[in-house]
Hints:
By secondary structure, this protein is an alpha/beta fold. The chain has one domain (7-236): Rossmann fold. It is 42% helix and 21% strand. It is built from nine helices and seven strands. A seven-stranded mixed sheet has the order 3-2-1-4-5-7-6, with helices on both faces. The longest helix is centred in the C-terminal third of the chain and has 22 residues, at 164-185. The protein is globular. The two termini are 33 Å apart.
Amino acid sequence: MIDLPQGEEKVKAVDDMFDAIAPRYDLLNRLLTFGMDVGWRRKTVRSLQLPPAARVLDLACGTGDLCRELDKRGYRPIGVDRSAGMLAAQRPGPRSGGRSGPRSPVVRGDALRLPFRTNAVDGIVCGFALRNFASLKPFLTECARVLRPGGRLALLEVSEPENAVLRWGHGQYFGKVVPLVGGLLSDADAYRYLPKSVAYLPPPNRMVAMLSEAGFGAATRRPLSTGIAQLLTGTRR
């Protein structure tokens, strides 16, 4: 993790970065993933397999993409994010049945210290944020605390393909094209940091083990789109 911030320095750097890139965050997500991020979020929400009207937290909700997908599926989402800029950039979207509705409720807060009681929610989702937390273990512990027994967790994150050729190509794109396009359309420093931040993630097998250690049964990891993204799921014991 050479040249990557740690501890409180990382927390401040991430807060400042997401405030800065919020206005064009959705646009860059669509462009840089060629729209695949939309399908990844749908798979994340479908993996919850919860009954209608289940209460689901979207942690590090950003501009609300997962909240809108949860709403369309008939769940009751609540977004949580530290970034005031991201929360301000949220927009309404279609609800289940195609109806238009207001933004989901949001809370400005820290996913490592959630302002919710124990066993308060039925599900938790989180998209592309695991590598941005100060530490992953307390995040998973807090998720386990607020989830009811039998509740579901679905974590969407970037990854690297196992195939050597695909991994090389992905590295070239993620390490060179992403910073170039991000710098042209948004904040150059942020889009240089984001590819490097993958180094914060534990190896895939270790991430699954951490889910189990935090109290989640049936913990699984599913590669998406040849392994450039990953979906981690588990059920609260």
